[in-house]
Amino acid sequence: MPDKFAATWVSHSSISDYLTCPRSYFLKNIYKDPVTNRKMKIMNPALALGQAVHETLEALSSLKTEDRFRTPLPERYAAAWKKISGKRGGFVDEQTEYRYRRRGEEMIARVFNHPGPIANRAVKIQDDLPHFWLSEEEEIILCGKIDWLEYLPEEEAVHIIDFKTGKNYENEGSLQLPIYLLLVHNCQKWPVKKASYWYLDSSDFLTDKTLPAIAEAEQQVLHVARKIKLARLNKQFTCPSGSEECHACAPFEQVLQKKAEWVDQDDFGADVYILPSDSNRTGTTIAEESLIL
């Protein structure tokens, strides 16, 4: 009988971390502060923006269609923003926070004015963290949350929708669609009919995506998951470009070097840090604007 507590758990974000930089994967997903025994998280404005917008919209899927807009979306967004205001959101000054908050307000207004599938029936997976055995024999579990599942009554199927709050478009080679397809296929009963991204920063409408075959998706994801499991067993997490030059792991190295400021603990008990203001304005800018949420 496989043991889920001893299994290797992988997700879209952890797989992306590993493919970008194994050292970054280690520091974000495994390393714990020897003093606090807590993981670490670096907050920045782009991540805070995505968090507030996602919280505002994802909560609607738990409500009946007729109840979703009883509380105005701007009011929901304002409540979500309070949780990440100031340094808790990585904002080093009021002007920066205002700029990002306004971007979020425009995204929320876009959804309110063009709700599209958000006004239709939705499927809500009941697990707090949907997961399944990607390979029982190898003890690998795939987990993750889906932003929105629109129910398609005529086909008795579901439509996967992912909200995008960054300025950049998802890389065509990304494993996000294969991972989301596998999660939805294995964690609820309705077949997957279609998938779309909604680039909230630039479009009123969804961008249709081509779904891979389930068998192909499983092979792709399992291939990387096996590499992650092997790396964990061998404790090999080397940065391919050198930590000082790597936009993925260098910020976490700054935390280890005591060059970051501790600001809070998140809902999962991780220590939340922000980097010095000069770091936020330079090397991390590109990475921040292409965060996967």
Automatic annotation (TrEMBL):
Residues 10-250 form the PD-(D/E)XK endonuclease-like domain. SUPFAM superfamilies: Restriction endonuclease-like (SSF52980). This is PD-(D/E)XK endonuclease-like domain-containing protein. The lineage of its organism: Bacteria, Candidatus Magasanikiibacteriota.
